[in-house]
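Q: How would the structure tokens look for this protein?
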Amino acid sequence: MSRRTLLASTAAVVLVAALAAWLVSPETLFERLRWVAADPVRFVAVLTLVALVRPLLAWPTTLLAVVVGYTQPLTWAPVALALVVVSSVPPYFFGRHIRGDSGRFAAAGERFVDTTGDVRSVAASRLFPAPSDIVSVGAGVADVRLRSYVLGTAVGETPWVVGGVLVGGSLGALTADSLTGLFDVRLVAGAAAVGVLLLAGPLYRYASKRNVKLR
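A: Here is the predicted structure in token form.
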């Protein structure tokens, strides 16, 4: 794929996402939640479809967990986690698609993954409060194996999903505005701290080896 083709396809995806996000707002989904949630099978089927198209709508992945929590008890957290993992796969494959034209970014990503490990690198990246889809695309560009990517995503997204389900259950009314500032700063700081701890060991060993070679 030429650089011009890559830029054109990326611009087209961004344009479609912006248009879809403008035409389809979260409120449209929220208005129909009670009817959808009345039938568990219908609820899972509809949310699976929403999870697959979510990247094009530019909605956050935690929205899925909040929606589940708004209509279902905490025991549905594994379902919410599965939906978040499914929703993270399309951006990952997009990253794999553009990997050949990513140059130094792909090389840097591969070195990072080689140093920290496939599962660990994805899990730690998910624990940081970074945009989920950027992490997904980055994992694809870095050539993380799909199985490792799915496992790392499930581990790293767990605190955000549980938090989202709890927040959804505590909301009296679900609107786009109510999704602002969802999570306690302690959860954000704690998850980020765990992410740092996951990366600290491998990065320290890598730095130590480089220092030995330079001597």
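The chain has eleven helices and no strands.

The chain has one domain: 3-214.

Upvote if useful.
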